[in-house]
Predict the 3D structure of the following.
Amino acid sequence: MSGSLEYILSGFEKAVDLLIHLEPETFSAVLATVQASSMSMLASLALGLPLGFVLGQTEFPGRRTVRTIVDTLLAFPTVVIGLLVYTFISHRGPLGGLELLFTLKGIAIGQTLLALPIVVALTAAAVEGQDPRLKTTLLTLGADLRQSARSTLWEARFAVLAAALTAYGRVVSEVGISMMVGGNIKWHTRTITTAITLETGKGEFGMGIALGVVLMVLAAIVNLGLAFLKKRSES
Amino acid sequence: MPNKKTALAFVALISCLILSMGGPALAGDVLKMASTTSTANTGLLDFLAPMFQKDTGIELQFVAVGTGKALALGQNCDVDVLLVHAPATEKKYVADGFGVDRKEVMYNDFVIIGPKDDPAKVKGLTVIEALAAIAKSKASFASRGDNSGTHKKELSLWASAKMAVPEKDSWYVQTGQGMIKTINVASEKAGYTMTDRGTYIKYADTLKGNPPLVILVEGDKVLFNQYSVILVNPAKCQNVKSDLAKKFSDWITSEKVQKEIGEFKLLGKKLFIPNAK
Amino acid sequence: MNSPAYQLSGLVHQYGPKTALLLDELNIDRGSIVGLAGPNGSGKSTLLRILALLERPTQGRVVFLGQEADFESARQRREVTLLLQDPYLLKRTVLENVAYGLRVRGDTNGLEKRVEEALEWVGLVPGDFMGRSHGALSGGEAQRVALAARLILRPRVLLLDEPTASVDTSSARLIREAALRARRERGCTLVVASHDQTWLEEVADQTFHLHAGRVAGAGPINLIRGPWQEQENGSALRELDPDNRIVSPGFIKQNSTAMLDPGEVSLHSRPPQNSPGFNLLFGKIISLNLTDHGSLVRAGISVAGLVFTACLDLEAFSRLGLNPGDPVWLTFEAQALKWL
């Protein structure tokens, strides 16, 4: 009992140490995490916001089916996504020539697949939840369809932001894709989560907890930053 | 609209951050290797990789996975070279044409560990006797069960003891997880398991030298664990950098590096015995 | 160039199986003020959405400013704009709400100046309101901001859907004035759906009365409710009292309602000859109003407790010499009754 408590305490101590001294291995893992998750977030937002808008506002045949599929994809396990992406970008796979295996771009592709259904589903719900008068108002003031989509998303900006944050939380904490596609290569594709897996595998539980704390600090910085933005735009 | 501007600035900042972070791998040759968790977890590869770069200018990037997956990565042309420890499988792999130029590099050894009070009374026995004693007493035995090199080794021990793998018996627990987690499972169940020595040293160290599980069987020849380097067959995989792989293979079996491997210590204890021919 | 603002023909609009609108023909002249009257659910809002080019009718033809209406692109839609009864303001400042339409048009020269001017039109002090948040407005102020957001676009047609129904009286006055000024100074065509009969009659060049999605004529419509009795010849009979019996062709249901256009009703100061195919009723004049810029007289007549409205031109009315309280005879063709 006292042993495991010790892990946690020494873990926190180590976390502070790693952060203060900008320990290069930790810094590299943080950087890799930030890079991969930023790429995947940009991609999933760029694709997911328009798709979510279409799904939330327009009527087309098969819309219900698409919604069901998207909702199902929310539960897609990361190792399966990792495996799927691996089979595609392995040299034997159809996209093997692109040299994406064991790269951050490869990880970002997998994470995009992870984040996309979240962004689409939550954006669709946010758009659907908007006042029906909004669409009428935008169109009668002369917005074309693209402008109306943009303005609708801007009206729903807090809900959309919440969608992005949910997706970000999932992306930054996943390990299956990063491990399978990235390969946990030191200085290159070792992210915070794969580093935690490695440290735990080595029996360095304290280090694992320390990295976990680093990850939470990172998430907290992003959340606080967005909360600050939200507050500013509200006032 | 100050809020929109702030949001834009934020996005711009992130984009700049991403763009400015070019990978350090841009310059120079890169060799991709698939190896096993044991070599990575003990820190041996972290010790060798910078040395290799210094000697040859080639950056060694390694993926640490189970031997089964390492071989699959080679078969899919996703890596250039393999450092693995499952001799029988490796020989078949080379015979099937997926790998070439297999060279033995070093070995470490496995040990059988168990509770200090040793309920099955295996201390000092040979491996074959020890397994029979565990099976007879129905004491818990934790197996990796993940098709890793270590798991394969354990299966071969049951075979050499002329016993069927007791997969269906309730005392035989397959964890499907890494070595350290499997040791912890054995510890929770006050049972036995087979582990590589390196992982055990780390395990004992984290418990301040007073671990609940101790080494009971060691030194038996069948417990030796041979590591070999294999080049991915360039005839099957045109993208692989077989020239770099060859350099690595020659380098790790060279006299100088062999000596370094012999000197490598984990927590003050030697782990690997070099045996390249 | 001087084609009407709208020419609608053969218009049918359905929501699922329900027919919301059925118009044979309806024209709206440029620069005119057109009123739309009728109870809730009569199709006024649906018609306005079609006129705003927001909703394509299920069937029929819409010609807008001389061109076949295009419901897909923003091009024609930018010539017309609709003000809703309950305005929706974007979650932005008042300035950005009013400027939105110009921004999507990419027309942002002197934006702030134009927003100021638009706010002044609806009686809002720009310095006080421009920087306000969308949430910091009363209902009447919000409606006026919404109107300013439309006036700034200088639309060719301004559609108002119950614009004053849920605002305070001074806002209502300012909204009416601003709309009329747009038509006076810019020749903007106004189409107004309103329950405010007095205002419509005062300003509208023409008012269409809608009932169950159909245009029922110019003027308030008479509704004759059941019970109807089926006659031997298949026609329907409504007996108000033994002397006042209404016959309508084609019995449908006991509790059907028949409509009667006030323009179809003739008045007589002496008992007329009853001819076949005509209904003859006897009542008392209870009200007389001048309407449609003084060219028409609208008379309210009580018949066996039921109030009928009749419309006739001023000249014909003068010849009758009727006053409120006088007895009067009404005639109208049985064929003039339409089932609702």
Summary: The interface with chain C takes residues 1 of chain B (CB under 8 Å). Confidence is low (pLDDT under 50) at residues 19-26 of chain B. The first helix of chain B runs from residue 2 to 20.
